[in-house]
Amino acid sequence: MADRILVINPNSTEVVTRGIDEACAPLRMPGGPQIDCVTLKKGPPGIETQQHVDAVVGPLLDLVLQKEKQYAAFVIACYSDPGLHSLREATKKPVLGISECGILTALTLGQKFGVIAILKQSIPRHLRYVGALGVSERLAGELPVGLRVVELSDEKRTYGRMVEVGKALRDTHGADVVIMGCAGMARYRKPLQDDLGIPVVEPTQAAVAMAIGRVRLNWAGN
């Protein structure tokens, strides 16, 4: 049986988990690791504040420790990477956060990356993380679509805002690659990339791709 990777949506919105599962589809291949996507039932409808981020760390730890023997790697599918370092302390299995992996992937695709956030209040939290990663000089900017996680299923409204924000990041801020700053945006990656004409990184795909490499090459090293 192939090794298994568990992708965890830390919010409790099932439609987001379905979008994450669909985003993982191109990474499922014969002979490759099995990729399972689950919803953290104890999470809020959306991870939109620092309090939300902090509150899901305990439930995430419980879930990972419960599933540790069944999976070869874990992916935290939230752009705030909640509990990432706590989980890395708790298990020797690879643990990847979609924000860290999305940013690292973007750095290989362009000189300046822009981020499409969901809400304005998310941006300071993300900027702190970019600073902690030491890549602030490569950040072109981050702009919000102004929609909550549970509103992202309104495809016409969401996609229209994402195009507006993506073009502003490209034309005004100088981004030559864009990261989708929420796992709930996954379904819009391909059309957005076509409309913007620059690479668009879906961070869950970036993290799962890295997890596959870690599992196949037997790299640990948290």
Write the layout of secondary structure elements.
Elements: E1 4-9, H1 14-24, E2 34-39, H2 50-55, H3 57-67, E3 73-76, H4 84-90, E4 95-97, H5 98-107, E5 113-117, H6 123-133, E6 139-144, H7 155-171, E7 177-180, H8 189-196, E8 200-201, H9 203-217
Parallel strand pairs: 1-2, 1-3, 3-4, 5-6, 5-7, 7-8
Helix pairs in contact: 3-4, 5-9
Structure notes:
- The two termini are 25 Å apart.
- The mean pLDDT is 92.
- By secondary structure, the protein is of the alpha/beta class.
- The protein has two domains: 4-97 and 204-217, Rossmann fold, CATH 3.40.50.12500; 100-202, Rossmann fold.
- The chain is 43% helix and 16% strand.
* CATH topology descriptor of the largest domain: Rossmann fold
Helix content: 40-55%
Poorly predicted regions = none
Give the biggest sheet: 4 strands, parallel
CATH class of the largest domain: Alpha Beta
Tell me what portion of residues adopts beta-strand conformation. Answer: 15-25%
The span between the termini is 25 Å
Strand order of the largest sheet: 2-1-3-4
Radius of gyration, in angstroms, nearest whole number:
16 Å
Approximate shape = globular
According to DSSP, the number of beta strands is: 8
Tell me the count of domains: 2
Query: Mean of residue pLDDT?
Result: 92
How many separate helices?
9
